[in-house]
Amino acid sequence: MTAATPRAVAEALARLREAGAALRRRPARETLDALARVLELWRDPASEPRRALEKELPDATGFHPATVREGLARALAPWSGEALRALVEREVGGPDALDGRGPLLAGGFETTALLLAGVLPAPTLLAMLAPLALRSPVLVKPSQHDPVTARLVAGSLAEVDPGLGRCAAVVRFAGGDEACAAALLEADCVVATGSDETVAAVAARVRPPRRLVACGHRLSLAAFGPGALGGGALDDAARRLALDTALWDQLGCLSPLALYGVGDAAASERVGEALARALADAEGRWPRGRIPPEAAALASRERSLAEMRGARVWQGDGARWSVVCAGDARPRPAPLYRFLHVHPVAHAAALVEAIRPHGPHLACVALEGFGRETRALARALGGLGASRICWPGEMQSPPLAWRRDNRGVLEPLARFSDLE
To answer: What angle do CA 339, 343, 286 make, to 5 degrees?
Structure first.
């Protein structure tokens, strides 16, 4: 796809306005049924778009094909057509509200623009389908790190429902192209994802009555309690956390960046050893993909600093994964690409305090081995900002209705009226 011009972006937005008017004349249930078929198509490993994604994504992103296959299987498994219908019912009142029947009236904006970031395909799929569920056409600027997914999603929409396909357009232009960005930001609703700095720059340019939905930097963590610090329980928890770490090479917001063990230094070393064994096994099943030189350099630096401190360090052949006993609970740089620090904390209350500095950016925390303390700990972590608490091994399989950034999937994109 060639780079768009400002005129091309403006013309695409104008076409979407026309297509959106036709879309809003259709029954909402008809649109939801079509979107449900798109989701089911993407869940099917034998479907054409799924096979195309599995073929093209490794070259475009650097992920190993086996990692892409496993990551897609786990990410899309809960994203069924029924899950989409339930989401629309729960957050906006279902098709009746979208069609203007009943006491709650709901709908999307005339147009929605998506400024996508990141490298994982599933968030792109959901970001494109969510506005369409509200019958708002979407203008998409794909992430520079994933030029594949948005194009394939748009093709799937056109294949399943040509009318719906006319309500999705993909435009590519350089991040510094201010004229193209200005044309795209003429949309009525703008969804901006990326670093906090990127989102802030977009926010400075979007003014009411346009809606801005900001999705900034997020990270995830894990913690093992006393019930998961030894024996078979530790091995099992480490195996599941290694899966969460290996999938997508630790580059998603749901990838664990650090592990906290409630115990002393000896417990941390047991956890580190178990995690090292599990990551070695994961590397054999889902090999790590390409790593940028700067990330490899940061990982080498962190390992060297840890060794200078006298900390235990484990690494795979070619440094394809690393585990470092941090020695204390202080946050440390996260090189990503299958690099985990293991931090010791004395008890659950200390765990909450150790995680507190991450609160503003916290997405998910995986908990294992806390027994009866689990629910109280989950409430405390939710109070810090975590929008998802799960078991290790489930971090990369969020439900469709997961309340990202402590808010709904559809609600931020919708307009509501109470009919009294």
So the answer is: 25
Contact 258, 341 (CB under 8 A): yes
* Spatial distance between the Cα atoms of 392 and 240, rounded to a whole number of angstroms: 5
- Write down the pTM of the prediction: 0.96
- The correct CATH number of 6-217+402-418 out of 3.40.47.10, 3.40.640.10, 3.40.50.1860, 3.40.605.10 is 3.40.605.10
Tokens of 367: 């908990």
Alpha-carbon distance 260 to 268, whole Å? 8
DSSP H helical segments within 230-285, as ranges?
Answer: 231-246, 265-285
Give the strand order in the sheet containing 322-325: 313-315, 322-325, 339-345, 256-262, 219-224, 362-368, 388-390
As a residue count, the chain comes to 420
Pick the CATH number of 220-386 from 2.60.120.10, 3.60.10.10, 3.40.309.10, 3.40.50.720: 3.40.309.10
**DSSP letter string, 100-140:** T-SSEEEEE-S-EEEE--SS-HHHHHHHHHHHHHTT--EEE
Confidence class of residue 1 from pLDDT cuts 50, 70 and 90? low
Closest by CA to 70, choosing from 282, 379, 305, is 282
Q: What does the pLDDT average to over 325-349?
A: 95
Residue 289 one-letter amino acid: G
Helix axes 81-92, 121-133, angle to 10 degrees: 50
Model confidence at 127, in pLDDT bands (50, 70, 90)? very high
Q: What is the pLDDT of residues 11-64, one digit of tens each?
A: 999 999 999 999 999 999 999 999 999 999 999 999 999 999 999 999 999 999
Nearest alpha carbon to residue 15 among 107, 139, 115, 129 = 139
Please report, as a single letter, which amino acid is at residue 418: D
